[in-house]
Amino acid sequence: MPKHSRRLLRGLGLVCALALAATACGSDDDSGGHKQVGAGDLQTALKNGGSVTVWAWEPTLKQVAADFEKKYPKVDIKLVNAGTNNDQYKALQNAISAKKGVPDVAQIEYYALSQYALTKSVTDLKAYGADKLAGSYSPGPWNSVQTGDGIYGLPMDSGPMALFYNKKVFDTYDIAVPTTWDEYVDAARKLHKADPKAYITSDVGDAGLTTSLLWQAGSHPYKVDGTEVGIDFGDAGAKKFTETWQKLIDEKLVSPVSGWSDDWYKGLGDGTIATLPTGAWMPANFASGVKGAAGDWRAAPLPQWTKGADASAENGGSSLALPELGKNKELAYAFVEYANSGAGVQTRIKNGAFPATTKDLNDKAFQETAFPYFGGQKANKVFADAAKAVPAGWNYLPYQVYANSIFNDTVGKAYVSDTKLGDGLKAWQDASAKYGKEQGFTVEK
């Protein structure tokens, strides 16, 4: 194995051997990853039964696992919460490194999945017929589970973006719901002038929000082809974002309150944070964390960078993948397909998940579901339309987990100093490129 590939694997914390001249890493009985598996094979595995260990933090899977076991009595689903996102990723990488205790199924967020795919640490699901499900999912999530020619997970949920806004606040100050980001800036000015304690939103620098808004703006900062990557935050889409968002920062129109903090929830509740551009998974968090503002909030399409356009983006979302060192591949895939494409989808929707499956997104009953929290609004229609409007062609870096970890040291400075947002993005670009080269990637602008 070339020296640069060894550096790459150490840097990613994944020591499973990259398939270059030898075989891909995997368990000794690599039954699922290297041969075609038909429906008959899956049914035989289900009939014979066995145990499947699933590492996931997503709460609706508990009922899905119970239903699956009831349907297939010889199958035991061992659902383990190994921590959310980064905590689980560390545990997963440690297990892969030790070649011991690797789960059969793992929840992996879209932005992190390519890291595992590149190092052959998760199984290409095309061998199980996953490619036949291409038309079953909305474009954003489906694109996110693909790396090169492989399919490395099945989408579990999605996060098409919407603008959640406090209708009570907007009505009080006669502010129209913005349809463009320029109108959003004007609304921010009007609100803050009317009430200096109120802000259009809060933002202290968030990698997920930034990349999602760049995605919506038509920016393509990341180009990925195996271990060859390109990083460039200087395209026209990125400039649209920086020019507009810089106005909000310069004029102090965004609240300096960190997301998910107690003060953030308080601001959403008392109207001092008046909007939230984020993913369609947010309603459950409003209902549980901002109970006092029930009836005040609504959902609207995301403001557009160009008047009259119709573009959204994804923010958040996860897949279920099969680690290459896991056992019982047929059973594991059968569970993943049940949870993310079969009957488990409806179970998860009923328990508050937002689907990635087009059938459910287009379902009339789903779209006409009234949300008491949003004053009876049928918000799923807004979210479903957003899912159809996600621009294609977006990529994350194969080491996006690391890149996001240094966001506050680069772009984040624009929110707390004289550093301009564009300069912060350039610093993020340079730091991400430097790290990539150190890990053995070929990095080009």
Label this structure with key terms.
445 residues, alpha/beta, D-Maltodextrin-Binding Protein, domain 2, 2 domains, five-stranded mixed β-sheet, three-stranded antiparallel β-sheet, 20 helices, 15 strands, 42% helix, globular
Please indicate the count of domains: 2
Quaternary form: single chain
Tally of separate helices:
20
Distance between the termini: 27 Å
CATH topology of the largest domain: D-Maltodextrin-Binding Protein, domain 2
Looking at the overall shape, the CATH architecture of the largest domain is: 3-Layer(aba) Sandwich
Using only CA atoms, what is the Rg? 22 Å
Poorly predicted residue ranges: 1-33
Spatial arrangement of strands, main beta sheet: 2-1-3-14-6
Q: What class do helices, strands and sheet pairing give?
A: alpha/beta
Sheet of most strands? 5 strands, mixed
Total strands: the figure is 15
